[in-house]
């Protein structure tokens, strides 16, 4: 029997088994365990490399895509070879876009994705696995979803351990406030893992500052305009009680600073997260006290690389230890004393990375709270 005939027959069996499992009410992960996920997935030549993400108006996602493009160029391909699936903050669009690409290119898809929110990650992964394609995810997934439950199709998940760094920025903020007074927090999308962890980091720091009061915490959905509106409402409601602002990311901080300027307030202590270029410049000037860099350029490139090299059969994900399939990305705290040096090293020019060194800058296996 020819290879092609065998492959077609096995794909038919795989799809039939998934349909049967669905009829019995099994989840995608259970179905793949039941029928042996990845048993007959052959290496693919010239896969479709895709990145699915929120938008390019956010500097963070620009760096993610720049990294993806740099990886594609390392293969001798033009940047345009990277397929951009922009979900505009909609989990429904994220899943629909992925399914449309899978319907077109099937098992040739090598997908890198932030699923937009944690619950959306499972249907994305199940759709990829059912098509025999490969996916690597970042940031958002539920704790009960693991790559090793999907054979080789779910290649890897990378997130960042945000509680510790967010607690560091909170402590810097509280010290600048004189260790007393009211603080407000503006967060990301409520169901996003990083939004949850960054708020938890603030709450952890509060335990050691009895004279600091958390006046309010509201989701700003990672959006500058929404953050501006929320901060304006905080100022109306709490006025002079607010002595500091804890922001879940840099784009939120930009909206906060605009709201403060509109009220003629200068010197209010503010901290943020992400380490975008504009934010780092504001840190250097002392307008933001600290931000945290998660190296999105490396994250964007390596996530695409993992999906691609698994797709072409360069390595077999199921042969890797768990810490190579779920791992933390790197973080760097940036303060005024080191902001300019950091900018020169990481932002003025992008470092050169070996895209086959999948776990070099990573920061250990993901730890789950019991």
From TrEMBL:
InterPro entries: Peripla_BP_I (IPR028082), SBP_2_dom (IPR025997), TAT_signal (IPR006311). Its main location: other. Residues 49-310 form the Periplasmic binding protein domain. The keyword Secreted does not apply. Keywords: Signal. It is found in: Cell envelope. The keyword Signal applies. It holds the Pfam family Peripla_BP_4. Residues 1-42 form the signal peptide. Belongs to the bacterial solute-binding protein 2 family. This is Sugar ABC transporter substrate-binding protein. It comes from Ollibium composti. The lineage of its organism: Bacteria, Pseudomonadati, Pseudomonadota, Alphaproteobacteria, Hyphomicrobiales.
């Amino acid at each position: 029997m020819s290879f092609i005939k065998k492959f077609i027959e096995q794909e038919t069996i795989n799809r039939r088994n998934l349909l049967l499992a669905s009829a019995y009410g099994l989840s995608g992960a259970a179905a793949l365990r039941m029928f042996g996920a990845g048993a007959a997935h052959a290496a693919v030549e010239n896969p479709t490399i895709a990145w699915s993400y929120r938008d390019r108006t956010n500097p963070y996602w620009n760096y993610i895509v720049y990294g993806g493009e740099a990886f594609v160029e390392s293969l001798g391909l033009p940047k345009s070879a990277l397929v951009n699936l922009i979900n505009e903050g909609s989990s429904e669009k994220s899943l629909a876009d992925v399914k449309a690409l899978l319907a077109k290119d099937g098992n040739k898809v090598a997908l890198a994705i932030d699923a937009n929110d944690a619950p959306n990650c499972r249907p994305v992964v199940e759709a990829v696995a059912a098509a025999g394609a490969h996916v690597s995810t970042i940031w958002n997934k539920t704790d009960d979803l693991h790559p090793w439950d999907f054979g080789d199709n779910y290649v890897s998940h990378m997130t960042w351990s945000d509680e510790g760094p967010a607690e560091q920025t909170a402590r810097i903020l509280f010290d600048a406030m004189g260790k007393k007074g009211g603080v407000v927090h503006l967060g990301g999308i409520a169901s996003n893992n990083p939004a949850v962890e960054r708020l938890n980091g603030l709450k952890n720091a509060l335990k050691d500052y009895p004279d600091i009061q958390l006046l309010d915490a509201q989701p700003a959905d990672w959006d500058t305009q929404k953050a501006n509106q929320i901060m304006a409402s905080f100022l109306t409601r709490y006025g002079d009680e607010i002595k500091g602002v804890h922001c879940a990311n840099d784009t939120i901080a930009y909206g906060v600073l605009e709201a403060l300027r509109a009220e003629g307030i200068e010197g209010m202590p503010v901290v943020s997260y992400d380490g975008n270029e504009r934010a780092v410049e504001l840190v250097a000037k002392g307008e933001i006290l600290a931000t945290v860099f998660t190296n999105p350029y490396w994250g964007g490139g390596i996530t695409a690389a993992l999906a691609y090299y698994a797709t072409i059969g360069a390595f077999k994900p199921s042969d890797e230890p768990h810490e190579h399939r779920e791992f933390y990305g790197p973080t760097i705290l940036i303060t005024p004393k080191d902001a300019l040096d950091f900018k020169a090293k990481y932002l003025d020019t992008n470092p050169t990375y070996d895209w086959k060194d999948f776990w070099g800058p990573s920061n250990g296996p993901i730890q789950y709270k019991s």
